[in-house]
Amino acid sequence: HSDYDGYLADVADRLRGHGIRVEVDTSDDRMQKKIRNAERVKVPYILIAGAEDAAIPPRIQAKVARKYGATFRVYEGHAHFLIWEAGWDHITTDVATWIDQHLSQAAARSA
């Protein structure tokens, strides 16, 4: 490993201290391989829509979700400004559950 490993670990620790997720790759792989490996990392996305959204109809939002491989949820009785509408707390609870599930899956994969 390189003479910079200690320095990199220190920088990573300082970033973590600010709540930033960081990973240091100290492998002997060439830079191109490190870049290819990093490009394989997938971040989960969720796209939420109101069933009565006239500004961006759910059928359009579904296409966007498919394009990016996102989870897609449609909420009946809601329009475009979901968090300003009655019942928004149900949506935030649903999204928080989705986030918790993905964090649990990521933790299980890295264990």
Give a quick summary of the entry.
With 111 residues, this protein is mainly alpha-helical. The chain has four helices and two strands.
Please characterize this protein's 3D structure:
This protein is mainly α. It is built from four helices and two strands; from the N terminus they run ααβαβα. The chain has a two-stranded parallel ribbon. It is elongated.
Overall average residue pLDDT: 85
- From the N-terminal CA to the C-terminal CA, the straight-line distance is 24 Å
How large is the count of helical segments?
4
Main beta-sheet annotation: 2 strands, parallel
Please name the defining characteristics of this protein.
111 residues, mainly alpha, two-stranded parallel ribbon, 4 helices, 50% helix, elongated
SSE diagram, text form:
Blueprint: H1 5-17, H2 31-39, E1 46-50, H3 58-68, E2 71-75, H4 88-110
Parallel strand pairs: 1-2
